[in-house]
Every structure is written in structure tokens, then in C-alpha cells.
Structure prediction request, 579 residues.
Amino acid sequence: MRRLVPLNNSNKLIGVDEHGKTVTRKETEDLRATSLAFILGIRGDTLPPRPLLVGNEQSPGVPGYNVAYQPSIMPAMVGTERFQQLCSIEYLHEYFRQVLAGKTIALDTTYADATQAMQGALKTSGPISVYTAAAHEAKGAGIPEGEPGRPKIGPDATLLKMPDVAQQMGLKGSDAREALENYQGIFARDFGPFLKGKGSGTELLNGTMHNLPQLFNPDQPDEDKKYSAQPFSVSRNFGDEIAFSLLDAKLLENGITDWRPDGIVLSKGINDPSDQLSNEYLESRDGQLYNIRIQGPAIGTAWTGERSLEVLPLDKVFVVIVADVWFNAKSATKYDASVEADANGRGGRTSAVTIADLMQRGIETMDDVRDYQVLRTKYMKEELDEAAFEAKQKEAFQGADENTVLANFRVMVSTSSQMINHSTFKSKGNKTSDVHGKRRKLTGGSRMSLTLSNDVGEYIVGGWQIGAHDPPRARPTSRFSLECTCPSQVP
Amino acid sequence: MDTAASRGSMPQGATMGIRSAANSAAMNINVNVSWFNADRLGRSFNNPEGTIKQRFEASQGKPKNVVNMKLHKDAFDTAVSLGLPGDA
Prediction:
């Protein structure tokens, strides 16, 4: 796929690296062959471009991040030749730090509130639309509330606590209706590093008896009003799926998925292959043309740059979104954001701000972000009381009311091997996990090197599979060849 | 880019140590971008109690924490009220 990217550095972000050195990140400067490109995709709202956090003095005057709002660099082109914005993962890290650092998502939002604030397009597709349609049909057929076949998500249902919608949707006598009830909703207190659904094993259930057409309302005396349901199947954990689709919509609305992986850069293309001068003219005036592999084989480099995470054939490679999960933000008032002065009496600061304050009023300025980071460090340093955590874990699973809030979103590269081999919780590894390390140690680590503490934990809240590492072709085996025949790499 | 990462011999046949520059080794990726929500990631790859083993390792048991057992509501409540073995 060819992507024409505007020549433009007005979206540059100026930040400070871990050594205190000022660095400038432009969207495409780190894009080269073999690297992963992100594309500015659909937006969850029609608001103006996302601003930088208030008080950011390093990148003043950045207007926003969507060419649709910048007509000067968006001439009226249509089709595949239109301008599209690409960026590198290095830029995306900075984008999360400077534009999205204040975003929070409360998981105790009710279903009604979450869907009311949602764009229409998001409600008319996926699990939310299926639930809405099923409830509408059943109501139309005259099925009373609470009867088999008429699902209802009550006013107290939240992303953390959903009813067993699959069971509700099943008609009388069907597998879905006869299934044992499940807890449903997002479980955000696991020892593992993922938010996960509360449901039982994944399976599909028949929604009608014996998977045959069935009358919705057999008791209806009026023959003309009898309503026949066609056979349908429903996911056993459909309540979990609705909760996660609400979370996905929240991620979209908050801009966390503004930039989405597009593909691997194959090369920078030529705008006008027949004429070098014309090509240079177009290049300097209009934009850069990238060849991106959005589907199929591409050459990349070692995915994570981590020696202990060598990617083996058939491993899937991912870009995942990580967030801090505050298990009950309202009660997080133990620490304030004050900082003690150093030995020379410098750097001290008094602040009464707590996590509960920040989560209630929102993180809107760079000062808020600074306070948040101070508070986060204090909480993360606490040693995890595993027994107490387990007790609260069960209460949460059973639907205890908690003000669970996601904050401090960022992206991380990962692989399927890393998730399987390093997602196990280990007490010792969790104690020594480095909260701020740029590259965290994996060997002997716990939860993919994500930290778990008493009031907050780092969790993966979603991610994109980029593709699978294709096995190399079978190596030559003739007597003239002494090539490596490592068995783990031969298909 | 390290194109020699998998070369085990010189062209004349002399064996050599395999150079491994993990940060720059070329890798063939079959690109297929798709969104995984956290539940799907967890159901596919989560291994919170280390019970998923490699193919030649003997399995050392099943999850002990009730939240990892994928139980129905009644079974979960019963397990919690009874306090399963290994359950704090």
C-alpha cells in the first residue's frame, strides 16, 4: 500500500529524554525500511484536534494531530492518493507522554452512561448492537421483562459488573438458557498482567432448543402475533464481550487508539519514477511516499530489541497498550504529592493532592502529571500484601463496588512468547520490578515486568497483533552445506 | 541489519560460531494487523500461575487461585466460602 505523507513538521513534539537532554520527535523521521508505521485512523469524536497538556512549554503552538483539521496541508484529494499521516513508535511514545498523559477511564461507569456518551456508529456494530437488537426484538414479540429471550442490562450494571446476557438471550429450554449462570464483566484485579473477563471457558451456545426455529411467545393466544425465532448461537461470555467493547469504545474516545498500526515500511517510494527532477519537485512540495506492507510478508528487525525475547518462528508479535489500574481510586488518599528536599535542600515541594483528587477532577496540566508520577511512585514502592490482595480479588470478582480507574496509558512491544513465558506472577520478581526502567529485566521477573502493588497495578488493556514471524524456509541440507539447521527454526 | 545471524559456516565449509546480534537480526513477519482486546490476549496467552508448560515439560498441576479456574457463579461462590486448597 502506498501512503502519501505530508511534508510537515508542525506536529513535532519536543521532550526530554531520560538523561535530561532535549529531543525533538517528528512523525516520520524514525520511519525507515523494516520499522513499524502507525497511521492516524478514525477518531472517536468530532472534537477539534487533541491539544497538548496545559503547561507544556517544550512544544508550544502545536495545533493538533489530524490533517482533516489542517486544510493548508490537506488539498482536496480523494482516494488512495490523499494525504495520510504516518508516525513511528518513537513518536507515538512521545505522543502518549505529551498529549494523552492525562486520560483516565473509569470502569465503574454504568452501561447506560457509557452508551449514552457513545457515537452512534459505535453503537450500531459489534456486541452492543447485538444486545440492543435482541432486546428490541424480544420487546416487539411481547416477551415480558425477565422471561427467557429478553435480555436486560440493568441500571446498576457497570463495565466491571455485567449480567449473564448469554443466558438471558437463550429461549426457553435452549442450551444458553439452561447454562449455569456466570459472573460477567471486566476483572481488573488479577495477579496476571491482563484485564480479563470473569466468564467460564470460551464456547458457543445454541439460543433455541435443539438449534431449531422456536416460538418466542408460545403462550400468545393470537396466532397472528406468534413470533418465531430463527436458530442462533451466542457466545457463552457475551456479557464480558459487551463490557470489553465498551472499554474499546472508551479507548477510542480518549484517543488512545488514534494512531493504529498500519504495517511495516518496505521502502520510501518514488513519486514520479519517470523523471527524477519532477520527483524531487513533488517531494519537496507535497510529501513523502511510503511503501507499506499492510498485509503479507515483510522484513522487520528483532521485535523487542531484547536478547531474552528472541522471536521464534510462528510467534505472534504485538504492540500492546499498558495502563495503571487504580483498584479503588476513591479510597487512594494515603499519600500526597509532596516531595522531600534532597541533601542540599533543593527539589522539595509541598502538595496536598492525592490520587482520589486527581481521578475525580481529571489530569489536565503538566503539573497534574508531575503530581501523578510522584504519587504513582509512592504507591508502587509498597510491598504487595498477597493475602489481602487475594481476599479483595474475590470480592471484586463477586461484584464489590470499586471505583476502578485506568490512567497513565502507554504502548509497549511484546510477543506471544513473552506473554506465555513471562506473565506468571512471582513474589520475588514483583518486589524487584523496576517501575521506571526503560528496558525492564525479564529473566526472573514477574507479570511481563509489570508491577503489582496494593492499590495500583500495571495491566495490559488491549493490543494489536501485527503479524506472525514466518518460519524461514527449510535450510539446504546438501553435503556441501554446513548451514545451521537449528531444529527450532525449521518448519 | 544482521544478515549473518543464521550462518553457521563460511562458504569454504569452515564452521564458525553463530553470530547473534539480536537487536538487528532480520525477521520475516507475515503482517496481519488485528485488534485483540485484553480478554482475548489473556485467554490466549495469560499464564498467571505458570501452569502452561512447553510441550516436553510435564504439567505440574492446575491453577490454585479460584479466579483462574473459569468457574460458574455458584461454583465460584462455593469455592470461596469453603476455601479451596492453596487458596489464601
